[in-house]
Amino acid sequence: MSLQKKIQDLEDKLAQMAKQGVEIPAELAEHLDVFERVADQMLEMVDEALAVAPLEPEIESPQVIQQVKKPQPIAPVSPKAYEPYTDESLDQPAEISVLLVEDNIVNRKLAVLILEKVGCMVDVAFNGAEGVEKFKSGNYAAIFMDCQMPVMDGYDATRSIRDLETDGSRIPIIAVTANAMKGDREKCIECGMDDYISKPIMPTDLHEAVSRWCKVTA
After folding, report:
1. What's the pTM?
2. pLDDT at position 85, please?
């Protein structure tokens, strides 16, 4: 099924839910909000690609075909001219390996897209317990940790990771959570996290976290 057909089916079914008075579940509403943000990001990328694409020469009539010169290559445009992320520290990032612990498929895909955009190599865990195991065998510059997950939530996973850090090292752990209530940030810090990003995920928030917590060298 094509992407256009999938989007049309989604719109039709949402319209059917509204017509029948069916309330949209909270998780679906969150997915729709994230999907809209992903769509906006993709449209920006397409517009940027079209903006730097070479134009085809315009030929008015068959008589002038021989007079049309072969189009000259367009000089490459500096990434700074159309790159949505502007932090100079990440213009030429080194390879940064990070771990993303997230059970929601939509949020996971969006976060991976953004992190790869700023030069990260992303390893993924689907719950806190898997995140702890990945930490044991991996070598990451930072961990982006969802808080509410099955099997083991992000708070317990963070505590387990801190208990494993016996050599004096401390990996930055950034909470990524939909909770925005008063005291939630303090709860994240209390269990051993270093920073806090709210959902829906914003590209600038992830970008700033990478710049702030990962060791970036040109």
Report:
1. 0.58
2. 39
